[in-house]
């Protein structure tokens, strides 16, 4: 696997590709994953905006990828779902994700609304400033897309040539978090599952949930892909979790 900037698709395995996260944390731009079946591809997270999703779709078309067939949300946060309208395919997510997005869709999203909410609650500034930057004045044509299909604990998607397992893990970042497993490729998409709560909800002492992530490495999987960092091999993940004693 090679690393690249977030304007270039990265090949993780034969059937798994990644549009990387943006390294600037102020952009809050999560990675977008692609799992290629013989009859179409499954997209893991939608991108942070229609423009972001459009760039990813162009990259897929340039590589001759099979057409998108299904979109999976790892959770409901904006940087994972606001690009969904650009994909135009059915969406699958955890049942709590649908509830959260129906609530989000009812809000009057606009630059004016974001600025007024930031004035009310300054801790929202990092997230809401990134949303203003990402949306590039396309508020009137954008919409939040709740999932078409939901599940509670586990769901399997069968593409021609590859099966994808969706598993609910929850966590403090958000209770609807799932992981996306591709057993035949040895790859797991972690989303943000072990991250601490969003900045405006964070309390002193909130840290990454290392107890959760220590339970994720599995000999059946050799590559772990999270949304806001580089992919890690199982050995790299285990080394990060268990640093040598000084």
From TrEMBL:
Coiled coil: none annotated. Residues 29-228 form the Metallo-beta-lactamase domain. PANTHER family: ACYL-COENZYME A THIOESTERASE MBLAC2, METALLO-BETA-LACTAMASE DOMAIN-CONTAINING. This is Metallo-beta-lactamase domain-containing protein. It comes from Streptomyces brasiliensis.
């Amino acid at each position: 696997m090679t690393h690249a900037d977030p304007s270039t698709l990265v090949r993780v395995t034969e059937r798994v590709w990644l549009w990387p996260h943006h390294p600037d944390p102020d952009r809050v731009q999560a990675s977008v994953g692609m799992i290629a079946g013989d009859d179409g591809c499954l997209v893991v997270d939608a991108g942070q905006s229609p423009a972001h999703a459009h760039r990813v779709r162009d990259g897929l078309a340039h590589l001759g990828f099979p057409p998108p067939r299904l979109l999976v949300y790892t959770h409901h946060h904006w940087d994972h779902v606001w690009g969904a309208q650009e994909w135009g395919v059915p969406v699958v997510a955890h049942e709590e994700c649908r509830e959260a997005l129906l609530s989000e869709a009812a809000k009057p999203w606009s630059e004016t609304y974001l600025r007024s909410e930031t004035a009310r609650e300054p801790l929202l500034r990092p997230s809401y400033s990134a949303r203003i930057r990402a949306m590039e004045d396309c508020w009137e044509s954008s919409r939040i897309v709740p999932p078409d299909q939901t599940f509670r604990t586990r769901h399997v998607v069968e593409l021609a040539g590859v099966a994808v397992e969706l598993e609910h893990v929850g966590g403090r970042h958000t209770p609807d978090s799932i992981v996306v497993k591709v057993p035949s490729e040895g790859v797991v998409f972690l989303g943000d599952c072990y991250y601490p709560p969003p900045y405006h909800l964070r309390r002193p002492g909130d840290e990454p949930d290392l107890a959760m992530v220590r339970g994720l490495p599995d000999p059946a999987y050799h590559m772990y892909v999270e949304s806001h960092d580089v992919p890690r091999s199982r050995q790299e993940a285990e080394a990060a979790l268990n640093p040598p004693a000084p």
